[in-house]
Amino acid sequence: MKYRRLTREQLEELHPEFINFLATQSITAAEWQALKASKPEVAEAEIDVFSDLIWEGVLSRVTYLENISAQHMHLFYCAEKEMKLISVRVHNPEVDLQQEEGFAWFKKNWQSDWVEYLTASKAYSADPNQDKFGLIEQGGGITKGELFRWFEEILEI
After folding, report:
1. Per-residue pLDDT tens for 87-98?
2. Domain boundaries, the chain
């Protein structure tokens, strides 16, 4: 398995797509039930293949990722050949960027000495989707990139 198995909730939400996937494998509903009962390892392998296909589709469309913790924001732009990073660090231990009050503080103080910025870029490895998946597994969320673009504009990068 290249990525990770979709959660039960994700699989339930993607049930129609999974049925279509099984149909492309020429597996009927009755055959699927029999396969789960008699060869659970084969059924599990089918779920793994489906999970990887879904992840590949999602990851190939990812353009922006964000990972925000109490004192850090890591904002990623997934360009064609490289990933760009805007990293924000707040040096005020009383501020939690994950909380509404903390982010409000940041919006008022983003130019203060309490806030540090770093920008970087890195070429992808041989598998850009795996690089994106790694960031998601570390807590990154897929976004539309509003925050990245705002910082890009104000930092003039």
Report:
1. 999 999 999 999
2. 8-60, 64-155
